[in-house]
Every structure is written in C-alpha cells, then in structure tokens.
Amino acid sequence: MELQKEINVQHDKTQLQKMWEALKMYGPGIVMILTMMGAGDLVTSSVSGSNYGYSLMWLLAASLLIRFVICNIMGRFQIYNNQGMTILDGYSRIHKLFPIFFGIAGLVIGHLIVAQMIKGSGIALAWMFGFGNAFIWSIVVVLASLFIMGRNAYKKVELVMKVLLGILTFCFVGLAVYSGPSVGSILKGTVGFGLPDETGAYSVILVAISLVGAVAGSLTNLIYPYFLQDKGWTKPVHKRIQRNDLLFGFICAIILNLAIWVVGAEILRPNGIQVESVEDISRALSMYMGDLGSWIFYLGVFGILYSSVIGTANGYAKVITDCYYKVTNKVLTKDEKIEGDSKFKWISLFLLVSPIIWSIPGVTGFVALTLFTNALNVVGLPAISIGLLIISNQKKYLGKHTNNWFENIMLVATTILAIWGSYQIIISFFA
C-alpha cells in the first residue's frame, strides 16, 4: 500500500514537471492572447456586465470561438504551407488589394489600439503611485516600451507577457471570486442568444459590436503567425505544441474575460454604476473591499493594458512592414528578419509614440475611445475571414491540411456577422 502511494506521488510529480516544462516552452499563444486583450476586454466586459448583466454572455462565448478558429487556421497555414509563405503572402496571392488594405488599416487601428492602452496604463499608474497626472505616466509607459522593443524584442516581450499573465490571473480572478458569481445566470446568458432592452449608458448595439470587435478581433489576428515565426515554430513537427499553446492561451482569455464580466454584473450593476471611466469600476470595488480592492483592480488594469502596448506595437509593425514588401514586390531573404528591417523599427516607433496625443488631458475619454476603436475593429473582419476562407482551402499550398467543414462554416458565419456589424457602424454615423 505504501509503495503504491509512493508510486502515485512520483507519478503526480512527473505530470506536474511535464506541465511546468510545457508552460516554459509556451509563448506565442500567451503573447497573442495578452496582445488581443487589453482595454477592449476590460471595458466591453465590464460595461456589458454593469449595463446588461449576463444577457450578452453568449456573444463573448461566440467571439472567443471565432477567434480561436481564425488563429488556429492561420497557425496551421504558417506551419503547413509548402512554400514557406507568411500569412500576408497567402493573402497577396489572391489580390494586391489585401496587403494594401491591411497595411493602411493596420496603421490606423494599431495607432488607436496603442492609444487606448497607453492612456489607460497612465491612469492606472497615476492612481497606484499617488502623484503626477495620467499624461506624465503615459509618457513613462512609452519610454519603458521603447526600452523593451530594442534588439531581440520577441524574447523580452514573451517574458514580460508571462509575468503580466500571472498578475492578471491573481487580480481579476481574485476579484471575481470575491464578487460571488451566479453560475446559473452565467449559463443562462451563455445560451440566451438575444439582445436585451436598452438600459445602459451605451447602446446595446454599440456594446455588442464592440464586444465582437474586442474579442473576435480583426487585424490583430494577423499578428499571430509572426509570433510563431519569432518562436521558430514553422514546421509540421511544431503543430501539436502550437495548438496546445494556443489552447492554453484561450483558456486564460476565457477565465480573465469571465472574471472581468463577473465584477461588472455582481458589483457594478447592483449598485447602479455606469462605466464611463476606469475610476467608476475602482469606486465600486472600494465600496466592498476598501483601498485593497482598488489596488488589486488597478494592478490588473495596468497588467492587461501594458501587455497590449508592447504586443500591439511589435506585432502590427511586423504586419505593416510585410504589407509593404507584398505591395512593392520586394522580398526578405531567408537570413533576414522583419525585426531587423529599418522600416519595421520606424513603424514600431510611430505606433508607440504617436498615440500619446490621445493621452493629453481633455482630448477624449478612455471608455469612449475604447468602445469606438473596438467597434471599428469589426470593419476589418470581412477581409480577413473571406481571404482566409480562400487560402486555407487551397490544396496546392496545404495538401491534406485544409479546413474541415466546421472551420468553413465558422469563417462564413464570421463574414456575415462582420458585414452586419460594419453596416451598423456606418448607419450609426449618419443616424
């Protein structure tokens, strides 16, 4: 009996060691998830929870599923295509309009995404340190990011992301557990498939589209294959660890999004607090937990926002630089990397420095900027899903590793959803 117990203990240790070794090897999925999260998930999940309880939870589940399918297909294309193409190579072989659109849209969306992250990070640091205004701290965030984005940027980005993931998990999951989530309401909202009545400070359509834009994403999905390249996962032998790494990242995303939503539904909504600024969420938490609640919240805010600053600037600069090469028909040699290209450095510098204008006091509110940017994200989804539907079903590139029926249905449904969302955004501007 004692011998069997000892064997079981050793087996458990072996399993834990394997899990720990796997976690140390993981990277691109974690970097991708924390890049895609940030202000979008923080604001839209808390606004959805505070305004509409759990009734929009089904959109969160659908959006995460859409994003996993898209990222996994892109990762498979990166690993299995027989011509060593980047994802932009695949799109440009359909038509040159794809890299032209992605390059222009990438500059605009990347600028706005980094803007909201820098603005929010400055707000969080100003509160945590208790001196200086948010604008000064936003400048500090930019300067710190410039240091991290030096040589061998990906390795430093991956290390920082893993640390921030631990901080985020501790902060937001701890707050959610303290809030006492209603499991029944969560399950009901996940399978509800309906839009609630207008009861909040923001239109339910705007919140819904913003949720899809923040979680399902748009151009940010294009970043993932470049993180795989940086990690060196570019061959069929890497497919299993790539999928497991991505799955682990999405499990983390589900937990964190749900935790933020629970705080909105269980603390903000019962107290009638409308989320119009980050301070509104902090104020509600301080009512329940005192300054400790606000401290934990702002630490989590900084973690989720700052992770997206460095991930977005690095990833979007790679996409935009690659778009330039596709449009001009220039190529990088096998020994060259995008990170070593001078255009990549200037673009990443632009994406880090130019957004500081949105942090100038009085320019715009953090929540309003975030909701607008996330809703605008949806406009890029049709191009991504339609193009991906074409290239991921071409056997001349992928052989037997083309899409299955479920993946094709998801891409078609995503296209329809994104077109509808784009239409809603356009008519809202002229309403």
TrEMBL record:
- One Pfam family, please name it: Nramp
Localization per record: Membrane
Where would you say this protein principally sits, based on its record? membrane
Membrane topology summary: Multi-pass membrane protein
Q: Which residues cross the membrane?
A: 25-44, 56-77, 97-118, 124-147, 159-180, 200-224, 245-264, 295-317, 346-369, 375-393, 405-430
Keywords in alphabetical order, please.
Membrane, Transmembrane, Transmembrane helix
For this UniProt entry, which residues form the secretion signal? none
InterPro entries according to UniProt: NRAMP_fam
- Note whether Transmembrane occurs among the keywords: yes
Q: Which PANTHER family match?
A: METAL ION TRANSPORT PROTEIN, SOLUTE CARRIER PROTEIN FAMILY 11 MEMBER
Q: What is this protein called?
A: Nramp family divalent metal transporter
